[in-house]
Amino acid sequence: MKTDCERSWELDALREGRLAEKDADAFERHLRGCAICTHEKAFAEKARELAKLVPAKHPPELQLRRIRARVLRAAELGVPATRREMAPWAIAIAAVAAAVALGISVRRSSSKPATMAASASPASIEPSSATIAEPLTGSVQASGGAKWRQTRIGNIERVTLEDGALRIHVRHQSLGERFFVDTPDGVIEVRGTTFEVETFEGHTTRVAVDEGFVSWRMTGASEVLLHAGDSWKPHVPALVRATTPPPNAHLAPATATADDGSETYAAAVILLNDGEFSRAADALAEYLAAYPNGRDREDASYLRAVALVRAGHSDEAADAAEEHLAAYPQSFHRKEASILIARVARQHKDCDKARRALAPWLTPPADPEAEATIRSCAN
Amino acid sequence: MNGKRSRAPRGGPSRADEELLAAIARGDVSALGELYDRYAQDVWRAAHRILAGSGDAEDVVHTVFMKLPEIAASYDGRSNARPWLVGIAAHVAWRQRRGNGRFFRMLESFASTASSAVDLNPEREASAREDVLQFERSLAALSPSKRIVFILVEIEGLTSEEVGRALLLPAATVRTRLHHARRELDKLMSMKEHRGENED
Ligand SMILES: [Zn+2]
């Protein structure tokens, strides 16, 4: 039975008035005699009707109010979108917006955007949303004897699990906020989610997700995304916990040393968030030089590239991004770093280099952002 | 749909969308607040639909409006900013879910829970007939690239050109995908009509 008609695409063209009068007449004649087109036309109408009946969910009023306050405060302070996760989107959005308006690509300005005039009435801004220290966003239930700690520096919260099992609920993370769980042999990055993680004798023995999803990366292995209902266990049988956990009562204090560099790192992040890009880049370089075993080196080395590009030193930024990728081939920031490299190459009209940098993201299904970056490269 | 919600600033008529965007580009924070009040909910809804309940529609709203001061100057000046904002939201949302890798799977699992995930508001409850629920499930089961096009054109009311700009696709590709989206929907719906269930 014939199920396809090569003219059925003309249905939309007819409806939207894109057919010339003569073609429209011809197609209408075809339509009368074609069961397939007639069926497709009827279904399109039915689908359009049904689409209108799909109930819309109510937006969360309170959250939208909070976002409003944050957006206006940022605009008022002239804060550029320095929150980390904004960066790659920002680039893409600027490109889209520019494509809409001008049909050409936009090079992101490296200077700070002009400070917004403070013309909003203070009453329209919820006070304190950006001024008070953020409370911890993860709640942790620990098994008896578990060794763990929880810290938050700026927007970054970490739970470090040395031994035992935790059940962790993390509230939805806002943009720029990040939540990590460090285990002895890996790291989990979390959005809003509930999950369990278990370690035994220096190894992660289980990661199980109840809600949301987490990204789990064992040292030396590639990233695994675990969604609700998924659980991960190591393949090596020896690592799987014995049926009875050994008594593990005597707990050593958490192993934080007096100076692990986290303050230097935090200061650098604050500079970055404040738009002090050159100083942030210097502070991050200082951190990287002074703390060869610092816990935040991976983030720091990427952020240095971000700080440099924002400070207008795009060549140095590209070098920093390359160093980052060389040091952390499985980096959580690998795509962002690659795009940064490609964008700088594009500025130099080196599209081959841009393409090389983006290669992992251009294999189908290509990443739209990577595609956009390369598409607007012309040499 | 829009405009009604907008609150006029004290002592003045509410400004048109293109005036607001021009003011935002000049650094006017009150204009940003006004545009937010007018469209944040629409942006959220579009993002929520595209993300199929994966929960980050708020991130999309945040991103879109945080970036507005920077991109407002590139607005094309038409009187209704909604398609432009929804297009940007679609781009952001699309990127967001592309980034999370296994979302085909997520979509499949959403397909089985779509009807319970939507909250029906009372006045529409009467119209939540079986065919609407079935339609929602089928829509959720479409491949993401077709689904987003269908949502943007048929639910959000964007033109294929607007969708093309948002998703960085030629308008012709958008139309082709829309066409395929409908065919797939048709197939999914008639399959379900005749068989009722299909578990793996
Ligand atoms: Zn036909």
Unreliable sequence segments of chain A: 80-134, 236-257
Classify the helix fraction of chain A into a percent range.
Answer: 40-55%
Overall body shape of chain B: elongated
The name of the CATH superfamily of the largest domain in chain B reads: RNA polymerase sigma factor, region 2, helix turn helix motif
> What is the CATH T-level topology of the largest domain in chain A?
Jelly Rolls
CATH architecture level-2 label of the largest domain in chain B: Orthogonal Bundle
Strand-and-helix sequence of chain A, N→C? Answer: HHHHHEEEEEEEEEEHHHHHHH
Helix content of chain B: over 70%
Count up the helices of chain B.
Answer: 10
Quaternary state of this entry equals: heterodimer
Order of helices and strands of chain B: HHHHHHHHHH
Cα(first) to Cα(last) distance of chain B is: 41 Å
N- to C-terminal distance of chain A = 51 Å
The fraction of residues in strands of chain A falls at 15-25%
Strand percentage of chain B, roughly? under 5%
Outline of chain A: extended
CATH fold annotation of the largest domain in chain B: Rna Polymerase Sigma Factor, Chain: A
Indicate the structural class of chain A: alpha+beta
User: How many strand elements of chain A?
Assistant: 10
* Total individual domains of chain B: 2
How many β strands of chain B by DSSP?
Answer: 0
